[in-house]
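Q: Given only this backbone (352 positions), what sequence would you predict?
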């Protein structure tokens, strides 16, 4: 892993000083007063190559200007009931903080359906959460924990992941590319929980394609990950799908609603985010009444690595489909059998 030196940071910052004024304005929203830390993030994302890191930053700033990202938090998805349907089909939320103050972002990868709105709404929602994290949550955490906090951890729930999720690859690749190119090095660790057989099969072939830096960030935990996650966060910050160990943990999570479910619009995080966007919208002076409609953002072309990963996942899914007629139902059966085996072994250990 490359070490970012003070000389590299200085050279990068000298290049940043030469960018045009409009780019400097949006750069202020990006760095939030922490220019050095931002320089380090972009340098890490390009393995210390100063010219490539500078180009990445300039491309990011142009993307922000062209798509009015600085204004996206004043563009609520309306009406509220429609936004609720977006939240119910794009499962993401914030469940709390780690012991050292980093936000815990939870994603329901396996149970997200992305079938209640167009791709533009889901992309808009994802970027709004990114921007709210960077402009509101992280500065608040910095003040609360009295140290600079610029990153988060993510817990990915694979409950319900099936072969039929193949049709979501395009959307997920778009979202992944947006994060990679415009929000680099914002996540310290990705914790994978409740992983079924189909995930394990894909992970074996995807893992070698990832950069070493990315591979080290991914940790696949046993079961719902409760015991491992409690080492870095309190019980109150555990995502709802990690709180019940053992039999039925995934099924139990499906039945949790309201403020206990960090994916729900009724959860405190989403209530604060939605109220914030509505307040920001009220503070602007639109030329015409606000109408329902998505905030279209230009989709970046995925880089070669993202493209290879997407194609590899597609190929692996098709292989699984062709292996003895493997189906989603069989995957459910295998997952249940694996869970039963884990519980049986655990019971034996207790009796011993």
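A: Predicted residues:
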């Amino acid at each position: 892993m490359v070490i970012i030196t003070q000389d590299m940071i200085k050279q990068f910052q000298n290049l940043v000083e030469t960018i045009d004024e409009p780019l400097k304005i949006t750069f202020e929203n990006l760095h939030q007063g922490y220019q050095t830390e931002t320089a380090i993030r972009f340098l890490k994302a390009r393995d210390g190559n100063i010219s490539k890191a500078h180009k990445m930053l300039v491309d990011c700033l142009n993307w922000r200007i062209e798509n009015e990202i600085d204004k996206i938090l004043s563009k609520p998805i309306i009406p509220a009931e429609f936004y609720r349907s977006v939240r119910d089909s794009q499962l993401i939320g914030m469940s709390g903080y780690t012991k050292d103050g980093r936000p815990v972002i939870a994603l329901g990868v396996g149970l997200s359906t992305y079938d209640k709105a167009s791709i533009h709404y889901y992309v808009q929602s994802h970027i709004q959460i990114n921007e709210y994290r960077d402009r509101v949550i992280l500065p608040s955490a910095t003040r609360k924990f009295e140290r600079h906090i610029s990153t988060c951890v993510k817990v990915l729930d694979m409950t319900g992941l099936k072969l039929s999720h193949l049709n979501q690859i395009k959307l997920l690749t778009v979202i992944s590319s947006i994060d990679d190119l415009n929000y680099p090095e914002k996540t310290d660790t990705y914790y994978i929980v409740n992983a079924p057989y189909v995930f394990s099969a894909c992970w074996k072939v995807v893992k070698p394609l990832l950069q070493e830096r990315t591979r080290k960030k991914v940790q696949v935990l046993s079961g719902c990950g409760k015991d491992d996650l409690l080492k870095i966060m309190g019980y109150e910050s555990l995502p709802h799908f990690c709180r019940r160990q053992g039999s039925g943990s995934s099924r139990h999570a499906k039945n949790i609603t309201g403020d206990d479910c960090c994916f729900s619009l009724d959860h405190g995080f989403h209530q604060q985010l939605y109220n914030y966007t509505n307040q920001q919208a009220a503070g602007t002076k639109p030329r015409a009444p606000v109408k329902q409609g998505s905030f279209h953002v230009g989709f970046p072309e995925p880089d070669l690595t993202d493209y290879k990963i997407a194609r590899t996942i597609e190929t692996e899914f098709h292989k699984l489909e062709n292996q003895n007629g493997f189906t989603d139902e069989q995957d459910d059966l295998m997952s249940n059998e694996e869970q039963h085996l884990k519980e049986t072994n655990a019971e034996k250990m207790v009796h011993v």
